[in-house]
C-alpha cells in the first residue's frame, strides 16, 4: 500500500494537538511499575511502542512479543531481570536483527541471568528474573542511550545500587538526563559527575504523572513551516517550554532554516521568516532522531549540509543513513557518507526519477520526514504509510486538517 500527497498552497492559522511523548511514556510505565504506584499515568502515548509496553504490564503470561518496539525491548529486558520468574521476550524480524548484547552482558554481570534463544547477541531472550546484585559497571558512552536508561531505572532495586562509568564520548546525553530527571520525580536522586553516574539503593515513591507532548513529533511541523511560504504559520499544543526532551533543541536549530517559534497561552507558534542559512552543519550526537528531518528539509530548501554524530542511526528501525541516501537520491540529490556516522550534501543534483515512491523501511521517521517534501515536489508516493503508528498514529489525519490531500 502507498499514498500520494498533495500539499496546500498556504499553511496558516492551523492548530495541531501533538501526540504524547513515547520516550517519556515508556520510562514512566517502568517507573510506575517499580514504585508499585496506584496512580494511572495521564496522557499516555498511543504509539505502538507504548501499546506494546502496556500489553506486557496487563498480560497474565510469561511470554511477550513486542513487535518492532525498541524502547520496550530494552527497558523490559532490564525490568524483567529483577522480577522473579522465567520470562521470554521476542519481536519482529527487524527486532531480531537489532543487537542487544551490550545490555544483556551488563545485566548478567550485575547478577542477572539472560540467555539468547536464537542468534547470539540478538532477541529473542529468555530471562530468569531474580534479585540483581548491582555494583560497578563500565560501558562505552557511544552505545544507545536506551541501554543506559534501562540499567539506570532498575539500579535503585539492585542490592548494591549501581555505579556506571561511561567511557569515551557520551551519545544522546539528553535522553540519559531525561531518565534521571524522571527517576528523581519518583523520589530517587542519582549523582552524575563527568562520566560516572551513581545510583543509590532506594525505593521509588509513587507519584501522579502526566506525559507532555512529543518534541520529536513537533519536528515535522517545523519542517512543514520551513518548506512553506514566508509568513505561513502553525500552532502546536501540549509542548513544555522547559522540556527535558533532548529534541526540544529543534526550535533553536530550525532558526537557521527560516522558522521562528514563540510560546504563548495558545501553544508554540511556528512562523516562516524567509531567512535561511547558506549551509547547515550540526552534530546530532545529542538528537539523533532529528537527523532525517533536517536532511530532507535542507535538501528541499537547496541548502548544502553536513550532518555528523549519526552512528546510532545504523541500528535504528532501519539503517537510516543509507535509507536517506537511497530516497533523497530518487529526487536527484547526490549525498555522500562514510557509512558510519555522517551524511553530506554539497549541492550536487541530477534529474529526479519519474514516478517516485519513497520506501519507508518499516521506519516511522522515514515516512514523516519525507511527507512535508510535498510542499516542494508534487505527486510522489510514500509506501507503507501505517508505519507512523509507531510514534504518531494521527500524523496523516493532522496533515489532512492542515490542508494536505492524501489519497491511496
TrEMBL record:
Function field: Catalyzes the transfer of the enolpyruvyl moiety of phosphoenolpyruvate (PEP) to the 5-hydroxyl of shikimate-3-phosphate (S3P) to produce enolpyruvyl shikimate-3-phosphate and inorganic phosphate.
Entry's transmembrane regions: none
Pathway info: Metabolic intermediate biosynthesis; chorismate biosynthesis; chorismate from D-erythrose 4-phosphate and phosphoenolpyruvate: step 6/7
Chief place where the protein resides: cytoplasm
EC assignment: 2.5.1.19
Species of origin: Natronoflexus pectinivorans
Enolpyruvate transferase domain boundaries: 15-58, 61-399
Top-level taxon of origin: Bacteria
Reaction catalysis annotation: 3-phosphoshikimate + phosphoenolpyruvate = 5-O-(1-carboxyvinyl)-3-phosphoshikimate + phosphate
Residue positions binding 3-phosphoshikimate: 22-23, 27, 144-146, 172, 289, 316
Official protein name in the record: 3-phosphoshikimate 1-carboxyvinyltransferase
SUPFAM superfamilies linked: EPT/RTPC-like
Catalytic machinery residues: 289 (proton acceptor)
GO biological process, one term: aromatic amino acid family biosynthetic process
